[in-house]
Every structure is written in structure tokens, then in C-alpha cells.
User: Fold these one by one.
Assistant:
Number 1:
Amino acid sequence: MPPRRRPAARPARNEAAQLADQLQQAGYTKRDIARIIDRDPSLVSQFYTKNKGAAFVTALREVLAAVQTGGITDLPELAAIASRHITRRTTASGARARVRGKAVLITPTGSGSGRVGAQAIASGSARLRPLIAEAARRGLRLAFTVRLAKTAYLHPSGSRSDSPGIRRDVIQRADHTEERSYGSAQTGGFDAADFARRVNAASGDVTAAVHQWLVETGRIHPDAHITHLEIRTWRPR
């Protein structure tokens, strides 16, 4: 009878993963931890799968101490604590490394836009927050387009009870999802400052802020899931 193989020993988790475990035991999700360190949730997963996270150990220690001994639970406050202990990595020459990301630009005329898909939606569409904040600072108007399953909407496409009202603001997709646009230059759009306040109230989660508006105004089911989101800005006349 051949000898039985012993299961391979599970590699010990690095310190970043151990600290993330303790934060999860305290009630925070990986998504929350990603917001606290201002990174994508995929990086937190890589603490476990790719042994990453060494650069965030000090920040995570301070955050954990703030939770356990200071009784601090607010995500923006924890993020502020973490930011004091996170430094950008350097290149081989010693220069600060550039962070890859999609630039969000608003032209001098106030025209700007940003669009995110499923992966960014899962992390709260964080890359759209600077666009909304800058639009609010400049006193701009904004509109947005959302994409959800057709069954997620409460009103049929083109319904006057819904914001589009006309078919040209509705795009039906082959995967049984539908894009609908809310606000435009013709209708006046929305106050960017109001949406910036909504985003701040949602701890910086743009997806949650838009979802809440759609639910509050009776346009989608509460359990609906946004799969794509686009924000557009302009200067009011």
C-alpha cells in the first residue's frame, strides 16, 4: 500500500494579511480596508494570495489600534489615520513611483466625464469621486447614466414617470441590461454640490450614493445592482 501523502502546510500569512484578518474580525470587510488605505480591494486580496502589503503594515497597525483602543469606527477618520503612515513606493533611481490610474479632467468650460465598469463599481466607483468633488467646487451641473438589469427598473423604458421620458435616453443591451440617463443640459441636470454631499454621506461610495438616489426617487428596486456608471459635468448658462 503506497504511503499517504501529507497535505502541504499552509504558508504563514504575512503581517498585512494578519492585520487585515483582525480588522475583519472587528467587523470591517476587505472593501472597507481598501477604502481605509485608499487602494483597490484587489490589493487587499493580494495580501493573502501574492504576499503583498508590506508597505501598509504600519498604517494597518495604527488603524487597528484606533479601532481596538480608541473606539474609532468611522471609515473616513480611519482613512485619515492610515494616510499619515502610507508613503508612495520609489523606483530604482529613488524617485517616487507614479500611480497608475485614469485621469479625471474637467475642461475650462466645465465639460468633464468619467465612466466605470463592474470592477470599479465593486469598490464604490472611487475614481469618480474627484470628478464630482471638483464639479461641486466649480459650481457645475451633472448628469449620470446607469446600467442595470431591465427587471431592476420600476418603470418601463421611455416612461414619463422616469427621468428619461424619451426613448433616446435609453439603450437596451443584448445581455438583458439597460442603460438610462438622468439629467441633461436641456433639463438642467443636477447640482454637483448636492451629489458631492450625498457621496460624502456614503463614506465616499459613489455607487451607493447614486443607488440611494435611484431608490429614494422610486426608479429602481432596493436590491438592484448597478453594473456601469457614467458621470458627465457642464457649466450652467
Number 2:
Amino acid sequence: MPTLILVRHGRSTANTAGVLAGRTPGVALDERGAAQAAALPGRLAALPLAAAVSSPLQRCRETLEPLLTARPDLPLHIEDRISECDYGDWSGRKLAELTDEPLMTVVQRHPSAAAFPGGESMRAMQARAVDAVREWNARIEAEHGENAAYVMCSHGDIIKSLVADALGMHLDLFQRVHADPCSVTAIRYTRLRPYLLRLGDTGDLAGLAPREPSPDAGAAGDAAVGGGAGAP
């Protein structure tokens, strides 16, 4: 199955202002975020990409713009199910104000029980994102083969929840995962299990380029994804 290259959007004006942006319209990349996005094509240069999939929100689309300019043949698809969590009444509020909300403790310590007032639950957020990735995996494999890779630009909580799913972690542990703005998280999906290849990587990504299988790989199956028994 394909390799998913997850990119968190570059640093946004909401990040620097300490605001929980959610789905608030008009949240753009700041100067640092634009520079991060400009560097993304170079970081991904060694990777043949079959498609680009983006959250509909402005900051994600802006993050992918330099990559799409550098690769004019790379098709872009907008996927609503990887949009930011719907924080409801919390959207647009300062994070400093939210720390005293009783719900914030639940969000941090028991996120599977958290539902935002006027918004969605964190369980629903993870479920829709996982469903989207599984469907995109099947589509990319059908159209481009099992060794294809594709890039998906989304948001911090979405990426953390996808990592938790890939690692077989309960959602209540997903706050232990961290992904910086414009970092890359790579997950290789196989028939039996996913493998987390990169987490929050902000450096060189050439090592993710597909390699020819070794002659002795044979029917080793999932073991060929990484070296050794049980460790990618």
C-alpha cells in the first residue's frame, strides 16, 4: 500500500498570536510559515509523488502552493475530512484564556471524552481523518501502484490522531505526539500493519525515496519495509 507523506501547514498568523484558529476563515501563513512552505519542494525533491491532498483551509493550501508550482503536473485534491477539528465556540479564542476551562483538562488527559461546545468530539475528528486516509490509500494504490507515495497537508491534531491510529495507540495517548509547523510525518501502510517512518521531521527527507527490493527479500512481506524482525 502507499506511503503517506503528512505535512502540517506552515506557521500561521494564529500560531504566532496564540489563538485557537480552528476553521476560522482568513488564517494565513505568517512570514516564517511562508518561508517554511517555500523550502518544502526542496525537502521533497527526491520523492516521486502521485498526488497532493489538502485540507480546504487557507493555511494548508498556501503551504502546498510552492510544491504545486514546482511540480505543475502534480494533481491537487481538496479533502474536507482532513480539515481542522471543529472547535465550535472555542474557535478564535486565545489559548491562554482556554487553559482555565475545565474541558481543557479533559482535552489534554482524556481526549476521547472531549467534545467542543458547538463543535465536534475528538473521537469524531479522528474517525473522519482515518476514514479519509484509508480511502485515499486505496485510490492511490489502484491508480499508481502499491509503492506510490502521496502528500497530504493537514493540521496538528489531525496528524497526531493519524499517528495514534497507525501505532495502535488509544486516542487518549495522542497528546504525547508532537508535529511542528511544516514538519513531515511519513506512514507506510502495508497489508498487515502501518509503519511510522518519520515523525515531525523538519530536515532532509531523501531517505523516504522508494528503493528497489533486495533480491533476497522474496516473500518476507512486511519485514521488507524495514530492517529486522518487528522494527521498521
Number 3:
Amino acid sequence: MKKVILSLVMVASVLTACKSEKKEKVEAKEEVKVEATQDLNNVDVANSVITWKGTKPTGAHNGTIMLKEGSLNVEEGKLVGGTFVVDMSSMKNEDLDAESGAKLVGHLSAPDFFDVATYPMSKFVITNVEEAEGKLAVTGNLTVKDVTKSITIPAMLTTEGDVTTFTSEKFNVDRADFNVKYGSKKFFDNLKDKFIDDMIEFSFTVKTKA
């Protein structure tokens, strides 16, 4: 009997821990003022991509967004700056059928979410790069809608032939920091289980032109 009770206590503890587990996010700070870096326009937008993943109590959806243009500034093999201009109208869903995916993207593009008609571009401008143990801590100004915040993301830089690739690890951004309100418990207190998680997971893969 004691073993049964102990087992039930352990299960309850695990379930409680799972419920309280929260996604880690990159901290959004005030925008960093920096001098403009050289616009090299050297990013291969056709072979660069941003992945995204959003979650809610009933599941998750994921997809991609493409770059409109960009620069990756590298000196003597070191990343020193860069600008990634994100084409929000290129947003795609990858886990639903075509009709359902188009409906989801339409909702994400609407005024109550990313409002793509008003804010067709987002942007990430690198302001500082630090290297530790073979990895990069890349700080940059992220602009979504009409909000710009400084975030730091983990990444790496590799070069093969004439192509240099910037690859970030997956990182979570709190959409509420960027005034994306729909289904957010930070803006609405009557959602019950109809909310959408504030954390959106992203990753960058940015390649230079050959």
C-alpha cells in the first residue's frame, strides 16, 4: 500500500512539474542605437529561411517565412554585422493541408495578429557579436510591427567554398513584447482554454550568394 501511495505521489509531482514548465525566451530589451553597417546585399534570399512554430492548448502549427533582402557582414571569417529584412507576406504553414494552412496564414496576417498589410516587413539588425566556446551570442534589434526590441540569440557561422551560412539555434520570442495581442492572456483575462501561447519559436538560416 505504501508503494502505491508513493507511486501516486511521484506521478502527481511529475504532472505538476510538467504543468508549471514554461518555455524559455530570449529577453527583449530596449532597442540598441548603433551606426548603420555597410549594406552588402549579399544574402541569397532563395536559399535562406526563417522557421516558426506557435502553440496552443490543443496543439501546434509550424511553417516558414522568407527574406526579402539582407546583408551578412563578415571580416576575416568573423561575423561583424548584418541585416535581415523579413517578407511577412511570404509566411507559409507546413503542417496543415493547403486549405487549412491558407486559412491559418490569413489569420496570422490579419490586423489582430501581425497586420501584414500595414507592416509588410520585419527586420533583424545585428548590433553585437560575442564568441564563447565555439558558439556565437548574436545581439540585434528585432522589429515586428511598430515595435523594436534588442534580443540576443545563439548562433553559429560556417563557410563552405564561397558560401557563408549564419544558423541560429531555436529561440523563443514573446509576441506580447511586440504588441501581437490576439489570444494572449497578457492582454485578455477571459480566454480560459482558448488562448494562444505568447512564445513563438523561431530559427534563422541565412546564406550568402556564391
Number 4:
Amino acid sequence: MRTFVLRARSAPTDSEKLMAEVGGSCHTEILAHCTMNALFMAQSHREDTTIHLVLESTQDYSRTVTINANEMTQVGGFHEAALLEIVRQALVASAGMTKEQTRTVQPGVTVRTISFEALLKELTQTHSVYMMDKKGDSIRDITLADNPCFILTDHIPMPKKTMSSLKRLGVEKISLGPKMLFASQCITLIHNELDHQM
């Protein structure tokens, strides 16, 4: 299983605000771009791939929208609007949830009121977790472990205290090269590297 986690610190958990911020300062379109590159390829979808979208701009609890390619039965299209609609529906479904609850939105899509930190603690129990960092080891120089999980962020950098927590959890830093890339571009390059290694 290939797993991706996008920490979208500026993404609103309010469904209307989410859609209103497409192309705005919160850059909520990144959610669609990352979902597209994580789960789909030309004329097909990637099996055994999951993406967790962690939306953190909230008045109560973060929302983690999880999309599992193996279990999805309907997408509504492979364009930005259709993929954002999946996230919007998940946020609508999450109304009234209390801390660390889970709801199924549709086959292959769930929404949880779980923080990024709590999610990562869970994932490190079952995955080899990697954090994108320009100062990390080159992805071309290491052999990626089975069941890898890759952490990415939106345009807001990961806080220093989070980086310390990730280090304590055994998360490895890896680099895709000297240039700063969009999270969605990172996902494409990671898939390509895994396709060659496995």
C-alpha cells in the first residue's frame, strides 16, 4: 500500500469556505491536485494507494478526509471540481462530529476528526514514514521500505516542533531534488520512483 498525507494547514473545514478559497490565499485547489496525482494515471487508477487530506483551518477539530483507491466506486470525473466535491461532501458529512470520530461518506471515502499528530502516530505503527525535506537523503540513494507513507504540506511549512515530533516517531527525511516543488508534483515523482523500485 502506498500512502500519502497532505497537511493542508490553511484549508478550511467549512465546506462553503473550502470551495470559495479555490484560487484564493488558502489554495484549496491543492487538495484536488494531490488527490489526482496520488490516485489516478492515464486511463486507469492506481491500486493499493490511499491519500489522507488533513484540513486544519477550523473552529473545532481538524478533519482528515481519507480516500482509498481500491474501495472507491464513483468519482464524478477526473477534474478539479469533481475531486473537490468529494472533499466538500466529506466536510458536510462531518457536521456535528466530536473529537476522534469517523464517518463513511461514500465507498472508499471517510472523514475523521483527528489531528495531524494523532494520525501520524497511527501511521507510524503500520507504515515506514517519510517526510519530504530538501536536506533529506535523496530518494534515488535509498531503498524505500514496504508499505511506505509520505508526508507533504501545503504552502505553509511544517512547524519546527512538529519536525521534532516526527523525528521522535522515527520518520525519515527524504529529498526529491534541489528545487522546491508543489506537493502534487512530489507525489508524481514518488510514484515514478516506486514504480522503478518495486
